[in-house]
Specification:
Elements: E1 16-21, E2 25-31, E3 37-45, H1 52-63, E4 71-76, E5 79-81, E6 84-87, H2 100-108, E7 112-116, H3 117-123, E8 131-137, E9 141-147, E10 150-152, E11 161-163, E12 166-167, H4 168-172, H5 174-200, E13 204-208, E14 223-225, H6 230-233
Parallel strand pairs: 1-4, 4-7, 8-13, 13-14
Antiparallel strand pairs: 1-2, 2-3, 5-6, 8-9, 9-10, 11-12
Length: 276
């Protein structure tokens, strides 16, 4: 009698829906566990006014154009604490107090993790070595700090005083760029980089966001401009870092198990042409 050999079934590899909520646009893409995109990135304009109801409805509409997924990562333009919005300076004033994770889990029926958008973009940019600072130049001025690949959450340097009684965001956000022009805006950015280097003593600085492409100043050797796509690609690492503070899991939706974060390789450059 011939022996029968049991075939091993490959373990299911979760597909992640990565969502990046911005002051001007909401983007989404499906990602393999390796961070490779599945299909095209989709984008819709952020509703105005950008109330929680309008933005959540927009996400539902965006997701309809994508395929099946197992879990969700969200980058949000404000402070998220245990799944709840603490502030959202560039969205409607109704956002503070909204439990973003719970609302999206109810809406999408999948487990959700959410963090500040600069934090998520940082995950997609860093190498996981030493002290790494990420700044995002978009509607506002976002910051994220990582130590050996692990996030120090909710670092809001953008709202700290910078110069002339204004914050970093007031001097370097999208409105400031429009008012003073690219030359003066870049001069301000050079001063900001020098100050942050002296204060934080970072090993490397990554500059991202939609306005990263407007940077024209010479950068120090330990500074790099990264693709705005990192704001989506970092959604994979949001599920890998065991230091991420998670809210209680919604009943029936399962729980993402924190895994030991692997050594960070250079992020894929696949979406560089689709920068905002």
């Amino acid at each position: 009698m011939a022996s029968t050999q049991k075939r091993s079934t490959p373990a299911h590899q979760p597909v992640t829906l990565a969502i990046d909520i911005g002051g001007s646009g909401i983007k989404g893409i499906l990602l393999k566990p390796t961070g490779q995109p599945i299909g095209e990135r989709l984008r819709i304009v952020t509703p105005q006014p950008s109330t929680p109801q309008a933005v959540l409805a927009g996400i539902t509409k965006l997701v309809q154009g994508l395929g099946k997924f197992d879990r969700v990562s969200v980058g949000f333009p404000g402070v998220i604490h245990q799944g709840q919005v603490k502030n959202a300076p560039n969205l409607d004033q109704a956002w503070p107090g909204i439990h973003l994770v719970r609302e999206l889990e109810r809406q999408l029926q999948k487990p959700v993790r959410a963090a500040n958008d600069a934090d998520v973009q940082g995950y997609g940019a860093i190498k996981g070595q030493g002290v790494e600072l990420v700044i995002t130049l978009g509607t506002g001025f976002g910051t994220a700090l990582f130590i050996n690949g692990h996030l120090v959450p909710n670092l809001e340097i953008g709202h700290h005083p910078f110069r002339k009684e204004q914050t970093y965001e007031g001097q370097l956000g999208a409105n400031a760029l429009k008012v003073v022009g690219k030359k003066r805006w870049n001069q301000r950015l050079a001063k900001a980089i020098a100050i942050l280097d002296r204060v934080i003593n970072f090993d490397h600085l990554y500059i991202g966001g939609g306005n990263g492409k407007k940077v024209t100043i010479p950068l120090p050797p330990h500074a790099t401009i990264v693709s705005n796509a990192a704001g989506l690609l970092g959604g994979i690492s949001l599920w890998d870092d065991p230091n991420v503070i998670l809210p209680p899991t919604t009943k029936g939706l399962g729980k993402g198990t924190p895994q030991k974060r692997p050594h960070k390789k250079n992020s894929p450059k696949i979406l560089q042409k689709k920068r905002q």
